[in-house]
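Query form — protein Nuclear transport factor 2 family protein

QUESTION: What is the three-dimensional structure of this chain?
INPUT:
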Amino acid sequence: MSRHQENIALAQSVYDCGFASDWAKLETLLCDDFEIVEPAGLSFGGAYRGKDALERVFGSVLGALQPRDVQLKSMTANESQVVSLLDLVFDSDDGDFIMPVAELFEIEGGKIKRMLPYFYDTAVLDRFLRDRAKD
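ANSWER: The structure tokens for Nuclear transport factor 2 family protein are given below.
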């Protein structure tokens, strides 16, 4: 298996463990000084640090977002990074509301060092979440 394939498998394992709530296994995939930085413009924005950061993020981010589905579209990698493209799918009065997201995984020593999620349009997502909260 090439380094690129190993890195994609590592990033996929992060998703698999997170969605299965297997926090103990997930922590083995992360560097001791792991960091995930959510966009500052969203209610859950900011930097989360430490091996338990993803558990805290899953609780706050998915708790705030409550997507109906997370659809992984693709992953690509180089020697030290993986980029995944995914769609967050929400129910709305007008049908599905879809927010495209790109997540950058930075890898060091065979573990995830940092994750940086990029939401296609944080203003539109924030407005959708506020409007949904009014209902």
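ADDITIONAL NOTE: The mean pLDDT is 92.
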